[in-house]
Amino acid sequence: MANTIDLHPIGWVSGGRTEVVDDDWGQVEAVIRLDRDRYTSEALRGLDAFSHLEVVFHFDRVPEERIETTARRPRGNPDWPEVGIFAQRGKNRPNRLGVSRCRLLAVDGSELRVRGLDAVDGTPVLDLKPWMAEFGPLGSTAQPHWATELMREYY
């Protein structure tokens, strides 16, 4: 079994925010530009039939020394419990991978215009997937109160 995985960006986020800010992503619009040396518009054929995307990206602005591997209070909020890094969606993750669902506004050649992608200008995009309702959770869901409170102003 391999101990390392080589990943190469399929594209980059262009536009939208330039600074990492935790909230108010709902109306932020950006463009995802595919790496034209590796992909043509053929890679996106049919994607325009979907309303939403899942975007896997790299939190490239998180320095190695800021990576968390244990428990912490989300956003440092003393009112919230200490929870492990895998019980939250913070950017200081061991592999610095982000996953976001956003609205697909348009496909133009090898570019995607999106809204609500919580990644900043220049962020490397590792994968794109169309959002399909059947990939959502089956049955009821649950989450702690602090998570609902944290997400109140996120989108």
Automatic annotation (TrEMBL):
Top-rank lineage group of the source organism: Bacteria
InterPro entries: TrmO-like_N, YaeB-like, YaeB-like_sf, YaeB_N_sf
Occurrences of domain TsaA-like (ranges): 7-140
Keyword S-adenosyl-L-methionine: yes
SUPFAM superfamilies xref list: YaeB-like (SSF118196)
Keyword Zinc: no
UniProt keyword list: Methyltransferase, S-adenosyl-L-methionine, Transferase
Gene Ontology BP, a term: methylation
Family: Belongs to the tRNA methyltransferase O family.
The protein's name in its UniProt record: tRNA (N6-threonylcarbamoyladenosine(37)-N6)-methyltransferase TrmO
